[in-house]
Design the sequence.
């Protein structure tokens, strides 16, 4: 196990290098020269050159790339070009609100989707199963934008059950008052595709011989479904779950924008709008790093869930 | 004593102790209120919404409108604008009076009012810090400090004697010497500031009313500045409010500055529409608002719902939402019935389309090139833009100087009209022949294709469509050139774009701020048409040596005629700014130049309709 983890961590280095090169050249190519925006309404070439010199974008590419690598190694991405706020401070302060929305959403979505998937898989082919599948198909065909606009209008404005927007100071206050509606919207959007996917995983298992054997031995239906079937269907479910974990770092920019939540997703959009390369670089690198780590975590979890899995 | 009695006695002790603590706390609050110079009531809260995020609150560092709005509440300039006077009128703020102008507009002398103090801050080490003339001299120097890379350097660059030399020395040495004397910034005594200019400039008073020239204290910058010398997160000024809480891009809370000196509301206006608010506000000690809560809501629907849900008191409607709220120039009945008020102004800004006069296809001052540009100008339907793009919340611009700006002429009517038939005749006359495919060629027979540059957003796409339709009408093939804004700006400064629709909002309400946009030497800066029209440049050079006067207005008329003749621009629209105001807000009127009106307004405890 130790050797496997070490090997995987070692393999991260070329992957991260690839990410670094891609991010660096992509944003240098499409990101534009921010000096002209930062220089203000009226500026001369001397001022623009001064800005480029201070930001280091007048340096040859290999030097800029070297600085980028050093920033990754030290974890110090400097300050935002547009606000002068430290990038580390941006990440720390914006991550909390995003996680306040996305962690409960991920947990609730996973639990509800698994429970419903087990239930509809159990009655597969029935009218209930078909109806649920139709609702899911319709549900996932609708854009999240529509859900946000309709739910905000109906539940926040018309019914007044939630505030239209806002964010406070206390965690519980934010979770209960401001995060409830965004989480509800997130659930409506994510349950439909997850339910369909998990149902497929469970249906693959439900027809296996071990299920028939269990039933023949007199194991209760609850135990068959919740223990035996779920355990064997859990590997693809874990894969799905792990693949969504890096998304926590990105937040949900649409939900954050509509509900004025100071999360990381909103920050990403602002950074792109402002050509704020240090912020974009830092977030992209951290998301790439988190993706590689969660992939490793997923592999380790497979082994824990299913002892037959061999880590090579 | 029985256990029951002990319990009762214990409860009484606790109650008495709590009452005592409460009384002391209350006494403490009242004592603070009694000692506060500001008349602001902490219970009076105004809630405003911004449609975009701020960047920070250093007057020399931030350049966006929303940061500027907060800066205007925290910091103070030497001069400001009368709240109700239209067109905008300068009045003293921290200065005793308007500047004394001598030496044919080259020397300005200002006296700072005594007894104005910065808000308390640990950087002052427990001492009261009085505002003095040296603070303004320091703040003006900061604008040219190369390390700060201030976007407002142009306000003073090339204007104040000795300041450019100091900046140049800093560029060479890598350190800006704030203690070095600058001949153009003299402080003969603690409260007197004398500014010597390199040349006559009657616009300096407007610059001194612009928030980048607000007074900052050197101790604050020394304590809180980041590597670039900016203190974006620690605004400490002499203004009526101070920063209480800041959740970046989400919420900004300002509390009344208890040390603010206050003033008595005593504004006058001849406008009948102002008489109600004058009656509501006259004689009140200001500011009344104790707390300002600003929410940043980028999405239009969320912003409007927050206002309709009474989560916001003041909101800039914007053109996109106008059809939801307004019928033409009035509020829709459901809003009017709720007592919601509308404060409507034409923004001191122009939207125009320019052609690059250095471009080989559309540029140049020869007759055929002028005819080409004039034909394109006549083919464009501004009314359609107002209807389709601006949702009726704009009017056609007739003059390059917008309303509310000194030099505006309300009677001027532009001879440039939508007339595609005449445009076609003009092109035919100058030899722009149509080919078999229906598209015109240049007089020398080479293909004619015009590239229109625009941003990749919804407004940009709408403008593409309108200009494509316009040029289709006269048989000119048009291509759309899309680019990211920074790259487009770069190409524009390098005179590499062919045509684009741009806008300009007044930095200060004087015609010069608009007429300089076509001055030849400003090419590569803000002369985005890269125009070098000798006759225009000569008139402009005369105009900058003159104060506001009928003679200067005549020059502006002549310059406008030159714009129409040479057609470097097609003037587009003037947009309305519609501020929605909840019924409980008293005394509100949108000011065309000031970014916020918080210190001039009040809120009633209850809905005044009740």
Sequence:
């Amino acid at each position: 196990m130790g050797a496997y983890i070490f090997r995987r961590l070692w393999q991260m280095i070329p992957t991260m290098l690839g990410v670094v090169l891609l991010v660096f050249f992509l944003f240098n190519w499409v990101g534009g020269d921010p000096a002209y925006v930062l220089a203000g309404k009226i500026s001369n070439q001397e001022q623009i050159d001064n800005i480029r010199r201070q930001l280091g974008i007048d340096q040859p590419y290999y030097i800029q790339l070297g600085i980028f690598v050093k920033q990754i190694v030290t974890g110090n991405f400097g300050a935002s070009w547009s606000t002068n706020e430290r990038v580390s401070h941006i990440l720390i302060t914006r991550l909390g609100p995003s996680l306040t929305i996305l962690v409960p959403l991920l947990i609730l979505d996973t639990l509800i989707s698994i429970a419903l998937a087990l239930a509809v898989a159990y009655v597969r082919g029935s009218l209930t199963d078909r109806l649920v599948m139709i609702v899911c198909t319709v549900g996932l065909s609708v854009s999240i934008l529509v859900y946000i606009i309709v739910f905000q209008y109906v539940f926040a404005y018309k019914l007044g059950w939630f505030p239209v927007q806002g964010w406070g100071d206390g965690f519980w206050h934010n979770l209960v008052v401001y995060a409830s509606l965004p989480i509800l919207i997130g659930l409506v959007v994510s349950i439909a595709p997850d339910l369909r996917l998990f149902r497929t995983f469970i249906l693959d298992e439900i027809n296996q011989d071990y299920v028939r054997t269990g039933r023949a031995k007199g194991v209760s239906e609850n135990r068959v479904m919740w223990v035996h079937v779920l355990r064997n269907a859990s590997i693809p479910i874990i894969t799905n779950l792990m693949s969504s974990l890096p998304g926590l770092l990105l937040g949900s920019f649409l939900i954050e924008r509509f509900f004025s939540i100071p999360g990381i997703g909103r920050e990403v959009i602002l950074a792109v709008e402002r050509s704020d390369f240090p912020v974009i670089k830092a977030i992209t690198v951290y998301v790439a790093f988190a993706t590689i780590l969660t992939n490793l975590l997923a592999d380790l979890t497979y082994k824990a869930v299913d002892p037959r899995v061999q880590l090579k | 004593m029985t256990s029951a009695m002990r319990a009762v006695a214990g409860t009484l002790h606790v109650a008495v102790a709590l009452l005592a603590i409460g009384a002391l706390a209350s006494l403490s609050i009242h004592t603070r209120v009694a000692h506060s110079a500001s008349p602001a009531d902490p219970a009076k809260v105004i809630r405003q919404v911004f449609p975009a995020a701020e960047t920070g609150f250093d007057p020399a560092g931030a350049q966006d409108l929303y940061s500027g709005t907060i800066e205007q509440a925290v910091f103070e300039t030497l001069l400001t604008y009368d709240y109700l006077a239209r067109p905008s009128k300068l009045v003293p703020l921290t200065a005793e009076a308007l500047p004394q102008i001598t030496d044919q507009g080259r020397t300005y002398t200002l006296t700072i009012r005594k007894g104005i103090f910065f808000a308390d801050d640990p950087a002052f080490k427990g001492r009261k810090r009085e505002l003095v003339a040296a603070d303004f001299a320091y703040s003006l120097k900061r604008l040219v400090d190369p390390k700060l890379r201030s976007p407002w350097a142009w306000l003073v660059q090339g204007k104040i004697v000795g300041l450019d030399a100091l900046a140049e020395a800093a560029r060479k040495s890598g350190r800006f010497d704030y203690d070095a004397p600058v001949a153009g910034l003299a402080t003969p005594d603690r409260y007197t500031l004398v500014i010597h200019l390199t040349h006559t400039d009657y616009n300096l008073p407007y610059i001194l009313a612009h928030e980048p020239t607000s007074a900052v204290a050197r101790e604050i910058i020394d304590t809180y500045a980041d590597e670039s010398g900016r203190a974006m997160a620690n605004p400490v000024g002499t203004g009526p409010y101070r920063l209480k809480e800041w959740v970046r891009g989400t919420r900004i809370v300002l509390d009344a500055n208890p040390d603010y000196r206050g003033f008595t509301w005593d504004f006058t206006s001849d406008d009948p529409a102002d008489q109600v608010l004058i009656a509501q506000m006259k004689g009140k000690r200001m500011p009344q608002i104790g707390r300002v809560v600003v929410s940043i809501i980028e999405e239009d629907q969320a912003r409007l719902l927050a206002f309709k849900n009474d989560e916001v008191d003041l909101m800039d409607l914007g053109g996109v939402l106008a059809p939801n709220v307004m019928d033409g120039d009035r509020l829709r009945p459901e809003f009017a019935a709720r007592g919601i008020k509308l404060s409507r102004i034409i923004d001191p800004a122009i939207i125009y389309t320019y052609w690059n006069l250095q471009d080989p296809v559309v540029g140049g001052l020869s007759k055929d090139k002028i005819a080409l540009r004039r034909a394109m100008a006549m083919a464009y339907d501004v009314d359609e833009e107002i209807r389709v793009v601006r949702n009726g919340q704009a009017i056609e611009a007739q003059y390059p100087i917008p309303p509310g700006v000194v030099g505006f002429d309300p009677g001027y009517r532009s001879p440039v009209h939508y007339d595609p038939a005449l445009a076609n005749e003009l092109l035919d006359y100058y030899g722009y022949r149509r080919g078999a495919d229906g598209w015109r060629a240049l007089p020398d027979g080479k293909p004619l294709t015009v590239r229109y540059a625009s941003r990749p957003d919804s407004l940009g796409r709408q403008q593409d469509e309108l200009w494509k339709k316009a040029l289709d009408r006269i048989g000119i093939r048009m291509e759309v050139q899309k680019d990211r804004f920074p790259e487009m700006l770069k190409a524009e400064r390098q005179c590499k774009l062919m045509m684009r629709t741009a806008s300009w909002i007044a930095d200060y309400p004087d015609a010069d701020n608009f007429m300089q946009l076509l001055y030849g030497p400003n090419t590569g800066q803000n002369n985005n048409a890269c125009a070098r029209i000798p006759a225009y440049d000569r008139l402009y050079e005369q105009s900058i040596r003159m104060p506001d006067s009928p003679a200067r207005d005549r020059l502006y008329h002549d310059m406008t005629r030159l714009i129409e003749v040479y057609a470097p621009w097609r003037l587009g629209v003037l947009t309305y700014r519609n501020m929605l105001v909840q019924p409980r807000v008293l005394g509100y009127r949108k000011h065309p130049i000031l970014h916020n009106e918080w210190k001039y307004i009040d809120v009633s405890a209850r809905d005044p309709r009740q």
About this structure: Residues 166 and 180 of chain B are 8 Å apart (CA to CA). Chain B touches chain A through 50 residues (CB under 8 Å). The first strand of chain B starts at residue 41 and ends at 50.
